[in-house]
Amino acid sequence: MNKNLLVITTAGQLKWLKEAVASLHDSLDVLIVDDATPKSVGIRSFCRAKGLLMLGKGKARGLTDSWNMAYQFFYKSNYVNCIISNDDVRFPRNFSFRMFAGLKKFNLIGPLSNSPGNGSYQKWGRYGSGLKPHSYNVDQTQDALKGFHKAPFLEVPYLNGFCFAFSRSITKFACAPKLLLVNPKKTNVGNEGDLVRRIKARGGRIAICRTSYVFHWKQATYKWLGRRALKCRDTIWTHWTNPPKTHPHKTHSPKAHPAKISSPKAGPPKTSSSKPHSHHHHPKPSHHHHHH
Fold it and tell me: At a CB cut-off of 8 Å and minimum separation 6, what does 129 contact?
C-alpha cells in the first residue's frame, strides 16, 4: 500500500475534479470526498474509471464534514502522510513529496500558490518571479522557487485550507483523535482556523514549503455567484445543496463507493467558468469509515 494519501474534496464539480486529477503526476493514493453525491453528475463513474477511491454522502453536509471523513479514512487506513486539497487546483510534479519532507519537524504544512486566500504567507509572488502563474505553467512556476531548496520550510502562524499536508502527528491536535480533525460546528467557514489554533495551543508547529506550489482557481465559485467575500462560503454551500432551477448542472444521483487507486496522467487544463466547488469549510461528524 502507498503510505501517502491525497484527498480531493468536491461538491459534484466533475469538470474541476477531472482537471485537478489530470494534472497529478505524484505517486499517491487518491481519495475523492464528494459533498453532493446524490446530485452529482458522473463523479462516481469517473472515480471508478480512474481507479480512485471515493466517499460520498446521502446529503450534502459541508466541507468540514468532508475533511473529517477524509481524516477518519486516513487514520483507519494507516497512511503515514496526507494532503487534503480543494478540487479547483492544478498540481505540479513533486509538490506533495516536497511538503511531506517537512512533516517530521512540522505538524501542518501548506504549499505556495498564485492565489492562496487569506493572508500572504503562501503567495507565490513573495518568493518567485519571472513569469505569470497560470493553470498551464504549474511546473515552471514551481521550478522558479529553486532558490529555496536549501531552506524550504518557513514557520508561519496561519495556513489557508485550500491545500495542506499532515502526518500521523496530527492526531495530537485533532478535535477528536480518532474521529474529527476539525470542529463539526465550523460547517464551511473557519475550519482551518480551528485546526491551526489547536495546533498552536498544544505546542505544534505550522509551516509553508517554499519549494512546493499548487495553482488555485481562487474564487471561481464566488465569481460565478457574483460574490467575493469569504463570508459567503455558507451561502455558496446552501446554493449547491438547494440549487435553483437555472443552475447549469443537471442533478442525477450516483451513490458513493470506494474503488482502487491509481495515479492519473496529465492533460490540458481548461479555464471555463463552469461552477467549481465551494472550497473551504463544512461539517457534522461522519461515521462512514471506508477502508481499502
Answer: 144
